[in-house]
Write a structure and sequence with these properties.
alpha/beta, globular, about 290 residues
Length: about 290
């Protein structure tokens, strides 16, 4: 490991060969066990989190569709060795929070750069690799409408190469997670959702199912998580790439628990009272930031 990486988080630096270092640490820690109180706290927090996720991923009466509901539906129906791919927008956080990992090496969340367009291309690559050792399993891609529009052509690649994927296009009408960030910093919605772009006099919806079908994929458009579950079963049974489209709400249904403090630059000086109030709120939460992180 690099010396900078070893010490930058105020940890105890150990610089050396990774394998030899881990072996030496293992010998030094032989017989060590965490305090019972720490273990009990972790188990208690996990039970509380499991309860929250179970509620968060369940669609209730008159509740709009959400990422979490789609994630929970697929999670309950997929095989333990199926692979999940997500990348940009709100889906990396929503998958990380709500997906209950079923086996080692089955979740691919590109979080570091929130790389729009990675989902379908990365999913095709993941399926190529998966097909070599686990051809009977599926690669499942969670993708927003924005990322789909940016880069979708590897649906066609997957059809041509007979490397089946199951792609879920969750349409929230624009870049809803950035709109949420915009609102959470005291600003009004502007230019992130198609519905509030001043340069769009008439919003023309995209028929994602028809578009994907034109590239040879099986397609379905569903109205809710119950219909999504049935469509997903059919996609599992199919032998070619399937694209399932569902509209999700841009404002409601976001996962609200499990977040860490995030330093977002907000103006200290503004003519807008909401912006100044959010600045004070965010700054007052700075005590939650761990030193060295």
């Amino acid at each position: 490991a690099a010396r900078h990486d070893a010490g930058k988080h105020m940890s105890l630096p150990i610089v050396g060969d990774a394998r030899e270092g881990i072996t030496a640490l293992g010998a030094l820690m032989a017989g060590y066990a965490a305090p019972a109180t720490w273990l009990e706290l972790a188990q208690s927090e996990r039970r509380a989190w499991d309860k929250y996720v179970a509620d968060n991923t369940t669609q209730k009466d008159n509740q709009p569709n959400s990422y979490a509901q789609a994630i929970g539906t697929v999670n309950a129906l997929c095989d333990p060795r199926d692979r999940v791919v997500a990348a940009a927008g709100g889906l990396p956080a929503e998958v990380t929070a709500n997906w209950r990992t079923l086996d080692i090496g089955t979740v691919d969340v590109e979080f570091g750069f929130s790389c729009m367009g990675y989902e379908i291309a990365g999913g095709w690559g993941a399926r190529i690799a998966q097909a070599e050792k686990e051809p009977d399993q599926d690669t499942i891609v969670f993708c927003g409408d924005g990322s789909y529009l940016l880069m979708n052509s590897d649906i066609y690649s997957s059809v041509l190469s007979q490397k089946k994927m199951i792609v879920l296009v969750l349409d929230n009408g624009g870049f809803a997670v950035i709109n949420k960030l915009q609102n959470n910093t005291g600003n009004e919605s502007f230019n992130n959702l198609l519905s509030d772009c001043p340069t769009i006099p008439n919003v023309v919806p995209v028929d994602f199912a028809a578009h994907a079908a034109s590239m040879g994929a099986r397609t379905e458009t569903v109205a809710n998580s119950a219909e999504l579950g049935e469509a997903f079963k059919r996609a599992k049974a199919a032998d070619t790439t399937s694209v399932i489209v569902m509209t999700v709400d841009a404002y409601e249904g976001w996962t609200t628990e499990g977040h860490t403090w995030w330093e977002v630059g907000t103006p200290e000086v503004s003519d807008k009272p909401n912006v100044r109030a959010k600045h004070d709120e965010i700054e007052s939460s700075r005590s939650k930031q761990r030193v060295g992180v």
